[in-house]
Amino acid sequence: MTKKEILDTYLVIYEKMLLIxxxxxxxxxxxxxxxxGGFCHLYIGQEAVVVGVDxxxxxGDQVITSYRDHGHMLSCGMDPxxxxxxxxxxxxxxxxxxxGSMHMFSKSKDFYGGHGIVGAQVPIGAGLAFSNxxxxxxxxxxxxxxDGAANQGQIYETFNMASxxxxxxxxxxxxxxxxxxxxxxxxxxTLKLFSRGQAFNIPGxxxxxxxxxxxxxxxxxxxKNCRNGNGPYILEMNTYRYKGHSMSDPAxxxxxxxxQNIKDKKDPIxxxxxxxxxxxxxxxxxxxxxxKIKGTISEAAEFAIESKEPDLSDLFKDIYL
Amino acid sequence: MSNIEILMPALSxxxxxxxxxxxxxxxGDTIRAGDLIAEIETDxxxxxxxxxxxxxxxxLLVEEGSNQIKVNTPIALISDESISRKDRNVSTKHSNxxxxxxxxxxxxxxxDSGDVKEIKDGQKLFTVREAIRDALAEEMRTDQNVxxxxxxxxxxxxAYKVSQGLLDEFGSERVIDTPITxxxxxxxxxxxxxxxxxxxxxxxxxxFSLQAMDQIINTCAKTLYMSGGQMNCxxxxxGPNGAASQVAAQHSQDFAPWFASVPGLKVVQPFSANDxxxxxxSAIRDPNPVIFLENEILYNDKSASSKISDQLxxxxxxxxxxxxxxxxxxxxxIGIKHSLSAVELARDIDISVELxxxxxxxxIDYETVFESIxxxxxxxxxxxCFPICSIxxxxxxxxxxxxxxxxxxxIINCNGKDVPMPYAKNLEKAALxxxxxxxxxxKKVTYRG
Lengths: 321, 449
Prior knowledge:
The complex is a heterodimer.
Chain A: H1 3-32, H2 47-54, E1 62-65, H3 70-75, H4 80-87, E2 111-114, H5 121-134, E3 141-146, H6 153-164, E4 169-175, E5 178-179, E6 182-183, H7 184-187, E7 204-208, H8 212-227, E8 233-238, H9 256-266, H10 268-278, H11 283-306
Parallel strand pairs in A: 1-2, 1-3, 3-4, 4-8, 7-8
Antiparallel strand pairs in A: 5-6
Chain B: E1 3-7, E2 17-23, E3 30-31, E4 36-41, E5 46-50, E6 55-60, E7 69-70, E8 74-79, H1 85-100, H2 112-118, E9 119-120, E10 123-124, H3 128-142, E11 146-150, H4 166-170, E12 175-177, H5 182-194, E13 198-202, H6 213-221, H7 223-226, E14 236-240, H8 256-260, E15 266-268, H9 273-285, E16 290-294, E17 319-322, E18 327-331, H10 334-348, E19 353-357, E20 360-362, H11 366-376, E21 379-382, H12 391-403, E22 412-414, H13 425-431, H14 435-445
Parallel strand pairs in B: 11-12, 11-13, 13-14, 14-16, 15-16, 18-19, 18-21, 21-22
Antiparallel strand pairs in B: 1-8, 2-4, 2-7, 3-6, 4-5, 6-8, 9-10, 15-20, 17-19
Helix pairs in contact in B: 3-9, 5-6, 10-14, 11-12
C-alpha cells in the first residue's frame, strides 16, 4: 500500500471511532431527556478496541459481546439509525423495539449480540467458532467480555472446550478497570487477565487498548493464529470507560481527577488524530469528517425520535418461528 | 463341600430382570473372586459380571442367551472347595478360552420367550431407547447440520445407552463427548445453533440442566424475541427427567413445569416409543428450542414399547389413548404408565375412563382436553412433578376459565408428594404417584368413594 492508501484506511478508522463517540454522547443526551429508558451502557473511552479489532475482521467473521454493545454494532457497519431507534424503543429499531440497548443483533453484519447476562456471550461465541470449524470455513469469532465477566465460571468452561477442540475464537477482554463499581484489584486475585488461559494452554497478550493501531496489530496476529487451526487466543485490552457503568451510576468509586487524567493523556481519538496530523493529514480532513458525523448522528436521533412505537399486536410476535 | 448359588445381579438402579449374553465359564472351571464369569444384559447395556467368591463351577442353571431372568434368580452353582494355586492358573486360562471358543460346547440358541413377546402382528415392538436412537440417526442422515453433544454420548454410547452406534456411523465430528460442563456446553451449543447448525444436547439427566438454566432460559428461549425475529435457536435439549429408582433427591425431579413456564421454549414429554421417535424427529426439525424430556424407567419399559410408524408426531398435539365416558384423565410421560394401571382398576368397578396423553406440555393442546371434559364432565390430572405450580394446576385454571359449566365435580390434581425425593425404598414409593391414589381420585370425582 502507498502512504496515501494507508492514511486513507487510517482515516476510516478515525471516522469510526469518532462516530461511536458522537453516537454515545447523543445517546446519553437522549437518555437524559427520557427518550431512552432502562439500562444504557455507554462505550465512550473504549472506542479504539472495537475499531481496531474491526480493522482486521474478514467477511464471515462473527462478533459477539455483552451489553456495552453500541460501539460494536456501529463498528460492524450497522446503521446508526436502526441502533438509535432501538434505544428509543421504536418499531424501526434493529430488534423492532423488543431488545433495547443490551439486545441487538444483525445476522447480515455477523453481529450476534448484545447479551445482558455477564459472561453468557462467551460460550455462545465459542459455539459460533464451533460452527465455523464444523463447516470448515476459515472464519473467526471475536468474543468480547469485560474484566468483570473474567471471573465468571462459564468463561473457564469455555476456555477448556475452546482449547480442547481448537476452536477459532479470539477472546477479547475489555479491561476498563471497573466491574460496575468494583475496581479490578478488589475483584480479581490476579490482575493479569491475559494469562487466565494459561491453565488451558491458550496464549494471551496484554494490549494497549487506547491505541487503535496496537489493537489492530495484536488482533491480526491472534486471528491468524486461529485461522491456521491453532485454536483460541486471548487479548486483554487495557482500556478505560469515561462514563459510569450505566446512565444511573454516580461513579463515586473513582475520582474526577483519575478520569480527567486518562482523558488528557490517553484519549484514543485525540491521540490518533495527533498521530495522523504528524503523518501529514490536513486539518480540513478532520473538519470534513466531523461535519459528516454530526449529520449522521442528528439524522439518527431524529429518525429514532420520529419513528413509531411498535404496534401492540407485535407483543405476541417473534416468540416462535 | 457345599454349593453356593450365584444370583442374577441388579447392575443398574432400574434393572429388574436381565439376560445371560454370554457365559465366560463352564462347569468344572475353577474360579477366584474377581474372575469374570458372564456377560449380563441389563436394561441398559451388556456388563461383565464377576464372581464374588472362590470355588469350582458345578452347574450353570441358565442357558446362554436366556432373557428376562428376574434379579436374584439363581443362575449358577459354585462349590466352595478350596483351590490350589495350580488350579487357579488353569482357571484363568479356561475363562479366557471360554470367551473365545469354548462357548460352543453349550447350546447357544437364545430362548424364544423374549422374542415372541416382542413381536405382535409380525411387527417388532421398539423400546423408547431404540426409538430415540433411531430418530437421532435418521435425522443425522438427512441433515448434515444435525449433531449430538453431551457427556458420554460418543465413546461410552450414552450413560443410558441411548446413542448406541451413533459414533460409529457419524464419527467424532458429529457425535461429541463433552467435558462435564453443562453451563458451558449448553451455551456453546446455542452459539452453534445461531451459527446455522442444529445441535442436539444430551443432559445425562435433567437434574444437571439446572447448571445450564441461564443459557436455556436467557439465551435459547429469548433471543428470537429480543432480536425482533432475526435470530432463532434451533436446538434440542434432551435426556432423562424425573425419578429413576432410589437415586434420591438431587437425581429425582420432574422439571416439566419449570420449562413449560417459559415463552420461547417448546416442551415435550413422550410416553410411548412411537411418540418418542416421532416427536424427537419433529423437535430436531423445529426451528425453535425444544426441551425433550425422557424418562429412565420408560427407556426399556414394556408398557411404553410400541410399534413404530415413520410418521412425525406434531408438537402441540395431544392424543386420546383410551376412550371413555365417566372421567377424563390428563397425563403425560411416566404419568401415563400409572394412569394405565389406574384405568384397569377403575374398569373393575365399572368406571369408564378417557385417558389423554398430552405428549407436549408447551404448547398444550387445550382443545383435546376441553372436548373430552365436555363429554365426561370430570377431570383428573396425573403427573410426577411436585404439586405446586404443576401442569395440572394450570390446566385446572384453564378448564375453569373456559368450560366451567361442563364440570360436575372439582378437578383433582394427582402429583408426586411435596417432598424432596427420599432414598429409602418404602419412602420413595410413598413419595411417588401410585395407581391407587389415582383410583381414589377417580372414585371421588365420580362420587363413588
